[in-house]
């Protein structure tokens, strides 16, 4: 009994994308429980496979567009944004005494940030 051997994954493909797009894509892959390589191979295989008559080229382009929009949308997530803790502290420290009082904190932190902190349990 012979079984088809899997092809070796010996080739690589280099693409250039903005760093935030890469980070958003990697985060999405982690959420889906798969590697970035698996996700990209799936996209490539989908492009190369024979398409069913009911699936038009337009549908494939719409799906690819939706993926791009989702990746770009993820860029806006604050959890992916890199912050500079020292700069953030200096912004909050209104009297520049090197200490952050409760009043300075309350004045400098937006209501949405306080809600996010309470939800995350910080």
Shape: elongated
Percent of residues in helices: 55-70%
Number of domains: 2
Rg estimate, integer Å: 23 Å
* Ends distance: 59 Å
The largest sheet is: none
- What structural class should be given to the helix and strand makeup? mainly alpha
SSE arrangement:
Elements (H helix, E strand, L loop, with lengths): L18 H14 L3 H13 L8 H19 L9 H8 L9 H7 L2 H10 L2
Note down, in words, how this protein is organized.
With 122 residues, the chain is mostly helical. The protein has two domains: 19-80, no CATH class; 85-120, no CATH class. The protein has helices at 19-32, 36-48, 57-75, 85-92, 102-108, 111-120. The longest helix has 19 residues, at 57-75.
Brief summary:
The chain is an all-alpha fold and 122 residues long.
Q: Keyphrases for this structure?
A:
122 residues, mainly alpha, 58% helix, elongated
């Amino acid at each position: 009994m012979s079984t088809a051997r899997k092809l070796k994954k010996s080739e690589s493909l280099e693409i250039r994308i903005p760093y935030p797009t890469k980070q958003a894509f990697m985060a999405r892959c982690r959420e889906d429980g798969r590697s970035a390589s698996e996700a990209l191979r799936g996209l490539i295989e989908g492009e190369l496979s024979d398409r069913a008559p009911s699936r038009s080229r337009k549908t494939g382009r719409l799906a690819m567009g939706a993926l791009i929009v989702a990746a770009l949308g993820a860029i806006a997530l604050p959890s992916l944004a890199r912050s500079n803790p020292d700069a953030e502290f200096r912004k909050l420290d209104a009297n520049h005494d090197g200490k952050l009082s409760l009043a300075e904190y309350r004045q400098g932190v937006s209501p949405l940030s306080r809600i996010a902190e309470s939800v995350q349990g910080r």
